[in-house]
Fold this sequence. Notes:
- The protein is α+β, with helices and mostly antiparallel strands.
- Among the domains are: 3-30 and 149-386, Up-down Bundle (ABC transporter transmembrane region fold), CATH 1.20.1560.10; 405-480, P-loop containing nucleotide triphosphate hydrolases (Rossmann fold, 3-Layer(aba) Sandwich).
- Helix content is 63%, strand content 11%.
- It has helices at 14-24, 32-48, 51-64, 117-173, 177-181, 185-227, 229-276, 278-283, 287-339, 345-386, 444-451, 474-480, and strands spanning 68-72, 80-82, 85-89, 95-99, 103-108, 111-116, 405-412, 421-428, 459-464, 467-468.
- Helix 3 (51-64) runs antiparallel to helix 4 (117-173).
- The radius of gyration is 36 Å and the shape is elongated.
- The mean pLDDT is 80.
Amino acid sequence: MPPSYEQEEYKLPFLDSLKLSFWVFKYIKPYWKMMSLSIALMIIVSVMGLFPTILTSNAINLYLNPSKYAVSAKPSYNSIEIDGKYFIPSSNGAYTVKHLENEYIFQGNGNSYTISASQYNQIRFSGISLVAFEIFMIFLVSFVFSYIQNYTSQSVGIRAVNDVRNQLFVHLIDQPMKFFDSNISGRLVTRVTNDVQNLNNMFSTMISSIFKDAVLIAGILYVLFLVDFRLFLITIPIFITVAIITSIFRTYSRKAYRAVRAKLAAINGFLAEHLSGMVVTVLFNREKEKSDEFSVINNDYYKAAMKQLLIFAFFRPLIDFLRYVGTALVIWFGVQAIIHGQMEIGTLYAFVSYIGMAFTPINDLAENFSNIQSAMVSIERIRALFKLPQPQRPISDKKISNGKIEVKNLWFGYSQDTMILKDVSFTVENGGKLAIVGHTGAGKSTISSILTGLYPYSKGSAKIGDVEVRDCPIEELRKNVNIVIQEVMLFSGT
């Protein structure tokens, strides 16, 4: 297989990826207010997503299955008032609840407080209704904020990508013809379309997703620490193991991803070349050989894709297994604490729920590694085009006064090693004619390309109306020199 089929895959170290990220963020800078609003809303939505579990936990402890109560001097959102006393659920509380047929008795510290069963049930129902309303309002506000956040982030991505695509196209059309001779048009189209679109995904989705996942993980760990420190210590080894596995997965997934992209590029290169040259393949009766060549390339892609699939298929179940292990450990230790009166059922519910919530952003971060790598490769390709030097156009007020063409000792080659025109000289007087005859590749079209300023000549002189072509302003040259090309290009339009 020709090596030219497999290329263009960039192996980017972490620091290079970081530099590229800073480089590409300059396109977000004009829209920093919208991006800041999007990130701020994303953080708010992530934090708000933690509250429903806390509220549900408190509702379970207070209204569904309370075990112990403490007395507070001031009322709170989760307190029950009896005879001027405010009882709140607490695993260390001194008061226990005794349920008789028509009443509930709070006993502790040598005191006893009685409340009727109907009044107590009414308090519980009102409390649960209030919690349900609070959760509903949190989800409603989160919905509104999420809508605004998604709109702003997508808007920033679309606007930034629009700027990148415009600048990239302007930069490309200013390149000399020699650049387009050495670059396949399909590859350049891919840069302006697919690679730029990858930036949109990075701007509008991945940035927000990474921030959201990081904030959510940090918030969940902090809440777990506050809910119960003992259970938090039990889960720490699980999270450390997940972090190590995720780091290892990141390394192997990037290698597998690069291999898949390289093999896919080989397939695309082979198809582009052989489909466009199908006439030659058929005329020389090479269908069988080309089919065998494609089978080899396609099989290489299959092997790379299967290796990537194996990595992903192993990672996700392993993370899920660790989540189940962590949940099982928390339930086992939590039930022991509940039996000994050291924990409320609602607290255990909150802890189990938060562990499940923590693994969702972990999986998202891991799966985003491939998307990030894809974006980094696209950024590197786009930046490589932007690094191309802009041709220096002559700045002068010279005018072409007549049609006399004078070429003296002209040398030119499309590369420094191979010269097509060697010491060529001729003169065409104003109003005169000149026919140039020669075999294919002798340089006939090259002379016309030089006189129209498409290619710079190495040495010698080429003048039109006593003005050196290389010193003539491009507008003046285009206004006075026309060329009828062999193959006509028709553009869309009327």
